[in-house]
Amino acid sequence: MTMPDAATTGPDDDRSVRVERDGGVAIVTIDRPAALNALSASVLEELEQVFLELADATPALRGVLLVGAGGRAFVAGADIRAISALAPAEATQLARRGHRAAAAIEALPVPVIACVDGFALGGGLELALACDLIFATDASSFGQPEVKLGLIPGFGGTVRLPRAVGLARAKELIYSGRRIGIDEAVTAGLVARRFADRDALLAGARETIAGIAVNSPTAVGLAKRVLVAATGQPTDVATELEIAGFEDAFRTDDMREGVAAFLEKREPHFGGA
C-alpha cells in the first residue's frame, strides 16, 4: 500500500485520473506527477468510478491502458502524509477503497494492461496486479515495502502477489520489503513484456490490445471472468466456474459466428453479443 520514499502531498486537485479514448482503447492516466502518482482516498475513488463507467462502454471498448503521468513512477504507493493521521477504522475504509478500485478493474470485461514506467511500489504494485497484464520499461522497479513503515499491504498485495509470482517468492518480497528491478520482475513472471522506453511500452501495449481485439469480445470477457474468479480456488470449485463460463459461451452469437466462420473457412465477424 505504501512506499518509504513516496512524495508527501497536500490536498488533491479536483481530478487526478484522466481518461482518453482512441478508438476501442481507453488510456487511463493517474495524473499526480509531483506526488509520484501516490494513491490518496480520492484517487482510489476516482479510479473505481472511471472503471465502473468504462464497463458501460463495452463492447465498443476493446482494452484499457493504465499509466502514470510524469515519467518517474507508475504509482509510488499510497499518500504517506494522508495515511499518517488515520485511525484504525479510517485505515479500514481506505483499504476497502483500494480493494473496490482493484475489483472494478478485475470486473471490466476487457483486458487492462498496466503500463509501468518507473516505480510500481506498494499500492502501485497492488494496482498493477489487479490488471490483466503488466508491461514495463527497463527503468521500472517493483516492491511491497509496507513492513518498512510498520504496515502490511492493504490493497490486495497479500492476495494477488502470490498468484503472480508464487507463495514463497511473494512472502520473501513482502517480508523483506525489498525492491526488484525489471530483470527479476520478468524472471519471476510478474512482468509479461519489457520495453526499452515509454514510447515502445505504449506501442507494444496497443499492439497487444489490437491482437486481442480480433477475437470475440464476449469470449475474452468470459475468459477474464473465469480467470479472475477461479484463480486461487480449489480445483473442484475452479472447474465448475470454467464449466459455467463454457456453457455461457454457447449462448452467444459470437460463438455461433466463430464456429460458422471456421467451418466455412472465412474470417469471423464478431458482434460482441
Q: What does this entry look like structurally?
A:
The protein is an alpha/beta fold. The protein has two domains: 17-213, 2-enoyl-CoA Hydratase, Chain A, domain 1 (Alpha-Beta Complex); 217-263. It has eleven helices and ten strands. It has helices spanning 41-55, 80-83, 88-107, 123-129, 157-165, 167-176, 182-187, 198-213, 217-230, 235-249, 253-263, and strands spanning 17-22, 25-30, 63-68, 73-75, 112-116, 119-121, 133-137, 141-143, 179-181, 193-195. A six-stranded mixed β-sheet has the order 1-2-3-5-7-10, with helices on both faces. The chain has a four-stranded mixed β-sheet with strand order 4-6-8-9. Strand 1 (17-22) and strand 2 (25-30) form a beta hairpin. The chain starts with 16 loop residues before the first strand and ends in a 10-residue tail after the last helix. Residues 1-13 have low confidence and may be disordered.
- For the termini, the CA-CA separation is 38 Å
- Overall CATH architecture of the largest domain: Alpha-Beta Complex
Calculate the mean pLDDT score and round it.
Answer: 93
| Helical run tally | 11
How do the strands of the widest beta sheet line up side by side? 1-2-3-5-7-10
**Main sheet attributes: strand count, strand direction, barrel closure:** 6 strands, mixed
Protein name: enoyl-CoA hydratase
Catalytic activity: a (3S)-3-hydroxyacyl-CoA = a (2E)-enoyl-CoA + H2O; a 4-saturated-(3S)-3-hydroxyacyl-CoA = a (3E)-enoyl-CoA + H2O
Family: Belongs to the enoyl-CoA hydratase/isomerase family.
InterPro entries: ClpP/crotonase-like_dom_sf, Enoyl-CoA_hyd/isom_CS, Enoyl-CoA_hydra/iso, Enoyl-CoA_hydra_C
